[in-house]
Every structure is written in structure tokens, then in C-alpha cells.
Structure to design on (425 residues):
């Protein structure tokens, strides 16, 4: 959040952007404090060309002391860093922001601290994330390193059906992603080396043990991703849907305003590739990436089973809402009994036609185990032909069940009277 957590509200704190010397001093101090509480304390590699920082990101793992809860851990970290305030950043209490005192670097260093109000007390924002295991620790560090690199890589791999989150790299199911994005994602890996190799990027220490020297160096590295191309920048006579373009670019505009390196990538580097006629054609396809993910991560069965289950549910939703409901006349009267019978009829037809309920006198038999769009007309014909029969049987069942419950209630009441009479006075 760029140092903005404590800068609003009634009791706000002054957290200006930190120049390099202040950032390094505050970061070193925070790591030293947290080393007393955790075995592993580390921060991501900085992005190229940064001269000021809004906050300090740190990740911690394996407590050296027994915390009662994540909330207790947050409180102990506040005490260790002598923070004046802390605030949870996530509902699971895994990430907290802390306001620590601005380091005293002396008068000479203060003159280089940039534009700030010297009459206000300054603080530094430190964001600390509790990691669950060594894999989570490594992945989150990897994802946060090099500043905007994953914002750039994310925009490159997204059209090829891949998504990187704080949990790992995922493959999306095309038929599901626009309806239920979370359910569409198949987990592939959270091993940084494995992920980089799959993307076609170098995982050696040259690139991942130190920051890039410049934004241009980072851009050159990213172009090695086998999914990178600038074909989308080539003018097309079919790109005339202005509303669609505006909707797609709303988040992009915000990122361009807040991320100078990302803006440089979008506005300068990619057009320069087009001008030099480089990376004009895609080097792979979404289908090929999917097949390679199946081979490398062994997720083919999960992919197809989840897609089949969702498509089956999708067809059933259509059959229920657009076929069954529209094939049973809705009562126009306000009579509650008639309307109640109508709902009994609908639920019974749904049970027979969609859930293979064999307890009624008529049955719907599908040609296959799974739903297909070819079932639509067959279901419609079945409902029209048998709706009266199924509705009548559903009503009879309902009243028979009511009678059984009433008889049981009478019997239970009689038994309770007997038990009371048998008790000694």
C-alpha cells in the first residue's frame, strides 16, 4: 500500500516515502528485531531504479517462541520493533503493518532525505507476513522480488491460461474462468525454479540473488519468457469495441499511475519492440501450454474432471431455469394451496429429470452418464408429457408424510403420558 496504512483517519501518522539510506537503516533494524522471534526473516529483492520506498516488506517463518495465536505473534512483533502502532492487513491475521520510528541518520543524511515536513514526527511502515512453511516462505519472497516483474509477467502469461497468486502458479480452465474464476484454477507449482523453467526463464543466481541493474535489464530478461510477444500492439481493423477496451484497461490505468517501471514497460519498451520488428509473433499457444502443463505437472485428470463436473452443473442449471420452470405453467392465482402444489410439482420434476429419482411411476433415462446439451429437448418433452403425473404423486406423498408425522406426534405424546404415570410419586 506504499506507506499509506497509517496516513489516514483521525489519529494519522506521518509516513513519507523513504530515501535509500533511511530505507536500508529501517529495514536492517526491523530484521534485527524480528531475528529474535523467528528463525527465518527476509525481504524481497528490490526493483530496479528505485530511489524511494513507501514501505518495507518482510517475511518471517518458524517462531523461536511459542505464540498463543497469530494475533499474539503480531503483538510480540510490535513490542520487538518498538512500533507505535500496528494494523492487520488480512482477515487471517497473517499480514500486519507496523509503524516504527524514523531512523536517526544525523544531520548530513537528513539533508538528503528529500521532500518532507521537518516539523512533523516521521515514521516508517513495515509490512510483515507470517508464512506457513518453507515453501510458502520461498514462494512469497520470489513473488515480491524485483518490484514490478510479476506485474509484467502476469500480463504476459494471462492470455495463455496461467495465473500466479500468492499461493502458486495456476492453470485456468477456459470454460469456467469467466463464470467462476476461483474454481477454474488448477494448481501447478509454487517452486520458483520449476515455475521459471516452465515459463522459459533463467533461474540462476545471476538474476535471482541480486537486483537488476536497471529497468532495461529487467525488461530484457522478461522477453525471454516464451509467451512474450507484441502481436497485440499490431493495429487490427476488428479492434473497434471502445467500451470493451475501456473496461479492460481500467485496472491497467491505475497500475500505470502507481508503477513507474510498469509504465515504462507498457509505454516505452513494448512499442520499441514493435518498432524494431521484434517478438511480433506468439511463440506458443494456450493449447500447447495446457498440454505441456499436463505433462510436467500431471494435472490433466483434475483439469478434465473439474471441467466435466462444471459443464454438467452448467447444463443442469440451464435445464432447471430455462426448461423445467418454463415448461410447467405458473399459477396465476394467489391461492396459497395452489401455489404450494406448484412448488411441490417443480421440485419433484427436478428430482426425477435431473437427479434420476426412481421412486416415481415415471423415470427420465439419459443416454449418457453426464449431461449433454442434446438432453435439452428430451427433458422438455419429458416434462410436458409427465408434469401432471409427477405433480399429483408429489402432492399425495406430501400429505401422506404429513399424516405420518401427525400420527407419530400423537404416539410420542401418548408414550410421554405413560412414562409420567409410571414415575413414582
Amino acid at each position: 500500500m506504499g506507506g499509506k496504512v497509517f496516513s489516514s483517519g483521525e489519529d494519522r501518522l506521518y509516513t513519507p516515502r523513504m530515501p535509500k539510506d533511511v530505507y536500508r537503516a529501517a529495514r536492517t533494524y526491523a530484521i534485527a528485531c524480528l531475528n529474535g522471534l523467528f528463525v527465518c526473516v527476509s525481504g524481497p529483492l528490490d526493483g530496479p531504479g528505485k530511489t524511494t520506498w513507501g514501505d518495507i516488506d518482510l517475511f518471517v517463518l518458524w517462531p523461536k517462541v511459542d505464540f498463543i495465536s497469530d494475533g499474539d505473534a503480531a503483538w510480540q512483533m510490535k513490542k520487538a520493533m518498538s512500533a507505535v502502532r500496528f494494523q492487520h492487513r488480512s482477515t487471517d491475521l497473517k499480514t500486519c503493518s507496523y509503524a516504527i520510528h524514523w531512523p536517526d541518520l544525523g544531520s548530513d543524511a537528513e539533508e538528503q532525505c528529500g521532500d518532507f515536513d521537518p516539523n512533523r514526527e516521521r515514521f516508517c511502515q513495515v509490512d510483515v507476513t507470517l508464512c506457513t512453511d518453507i515453501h510458502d516462505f520461498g514462494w512469497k519472497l520470489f513473488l515480491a522480488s524485483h518490484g514490478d516483474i510479476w506485474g509484467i509477467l502476469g500480463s504476459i502469461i494471462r492470455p495463455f491460461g496461467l495465473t500466479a497468486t500468492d499461493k502458486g502458479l495456476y492453470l485456468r480452465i477456459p470454460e469456467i474462468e469467466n463464470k467462476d474464476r476461483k474454481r477454474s484454477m488448477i494448481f501447478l507449482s509454487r517452486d520458483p525454479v520449476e515455475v521459471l523453467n516452465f515459463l522459459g526463464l533463467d533461474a540462476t543466481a545471476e538474476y535471482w540473488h541480486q537486483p537488476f541493474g536497471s529497468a532495461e535489464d529487467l525488461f530484457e530478461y522478461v522477453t525471454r519468457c516464451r509467451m512474450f510477444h507484441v502481436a497485440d500492439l499490431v493495429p487490427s481493423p476488428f479492434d473497434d469495441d471502445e467500451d470493451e477496451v475501456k473496461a479492460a484497461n481500467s485496472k491497467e490505468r491505475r497500475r500505470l499511475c502507481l508503477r513507474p517501471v510498469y509504465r515504462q514497460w507498457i509505454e516505452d519498451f513494448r512499442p520499441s519492440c514493435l518498432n524494431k520488428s521484434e517478438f511480433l509473433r506468439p511463440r506458443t499457444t494456450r493449447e500447447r501450454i495446457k498440454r505441456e502443463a499436463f505433462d510436467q505437472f500431471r494435472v490433466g485428470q483434475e483439469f478434465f474432471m473439474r471441467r466435466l463436473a462444471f459443464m454438467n452443473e452448467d447444463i443442469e442449471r440451464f435445464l432447471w431455469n430455462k426448461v423445467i420452470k418454463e415448461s410447467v405453467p405458473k399459477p396465476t392465482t394467489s391461492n396459497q394451496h395452489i401455489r404450494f402444489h406448484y412448488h411441490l410439482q417443480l421440485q419433484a420434476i427436478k428430482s426425477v429429470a435431473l437427479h434420476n429419482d426412481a421412486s416415481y411411476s415415471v423415470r427420465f433415462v439419459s443416454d449418457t452418464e453426464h449431461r449433454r446439451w442434446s438432453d435439452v429437448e428430451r427433458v422438455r418433452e419429458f416434462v410436458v408429457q409427465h408434469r401432471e403425473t409427477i405433480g399429483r404423486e408429489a402432492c399425495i406423498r406430501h400429505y401422506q408424510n404429513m399424516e405420518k408425522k401427525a400420527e407419530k406426534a400423537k404416539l410420542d405424546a401418548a408414550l410421554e403420558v405413560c412414562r409420567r404415570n409410571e414415575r413414582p410419586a
User: Anything to note?
Assistant: Strands lie at 18-19, 38-42, 52-53, 56-63, 85-88, 95-101, 123-130, 162-165, 168-172, 185-189. The chain is about 50% helix and 10% strand. The chain has a mean pLDDT of 86. Residues 17 and 119 are 16 Å apart (CA to CA).
